[in-house]
Write a structure and sequence with these properties.
By secondary structure, the chain is of the alpha+beta class. It contains 3 helices and 9 strands, in the order E-H-E-E-E-E-H-E-E-E-E-H. The chain has 2 domains: 51 residues, 2,3-Dihydroxybiphenyl 1,2-Dioxygenase, domain 1; 85 residues, Roll (2,3-Dihydroxybiphenyl 1,2-Dioxygenase, domain 1), CATH 3.10.180. The chain is 16% helix and 24% strand. Strand 3 and strand 4 form a beta hairpin.
């Protein structure tokens, strides 16, 4: 038996395994695309009739599927029910997460929370359908907090949003000014 889970021990999953995409039920495709593409910056890769769309980063076929097949005009599930807690979107570095914070703030979207977990920094918010969304970046593994015995020691501490915002690169299309005389 595995002491941590009280379940029979099974071989570990292949460490190369990744979650390929998440597919969300939404009430309105256009509203969802306005959020995932217009605010977060994903690219629309394909429409699948009037009831579904696929978005991605970096040309992948899709990281997020959106559909209204069973949910057109629907409302979010009530609190206290099972379902998706949040989808977590991993950014490559702190500057990219800071850019996401800039986008979310510029769109007037309220954060549900922000945390420094020691291993990562994370922003928490809701999409227009009430789905939880975590935007985060991971620190390098060598910087992750550990206990004396080497175990991971994640924490939940307040995240300094001003310091994160200061880490943002200029928005795409903006040019840094040069201090050189002309």
């Amino acid at each position: 038996m595995d002491v941590k889970t009280s379940q029979p021990a099974v071989p570990a999953i292949d460490p190369g395994t990744r979650i390929g995409h998440v597919h969300l039920k939404v009430a309105d495709i256009e509203r969802a695309l306005d959020f995932y593409c217009g605010v977060l910056g994903f690219e629309l890769t394909q429409r699948y009739g009037p009831g579904a769309a696929f978005v991605s980063a970096g040309g992948y076929h899709h990281h997020i599927g959106l559909n209204t097949w069973e949910s057109r005009g629907g409302s979010p599930p009530p609190r206290g029910t099972t379902g998706l807690f949040h989808v977590a979107i991993l950014y490559p570095d702190r500057a990219a997460l800071a850019d996401a914070l800039r986008r979310v703030t510029a769109a007037g979207i309220r954060l549900d929370g922000a945390a420094d977990h020691g291993v990562s920094e994370a922003l928490y918010l809701r999409d227009p359908d009430g789905n939880g969304v975590e935007l985060y970046w991971d620190r390098p593994q060598a910087a992750w907090p550990r206990t004396a015995d080497g175990s991971l020691a994640m924490v939940t501490e307040p995240l300094d949003l001003a310091a994160l915002a200061a880490a943002a690169l200029p928005p795409s299309g903006a040019f840094a000014t040069s201090a050189k005389p002309t």
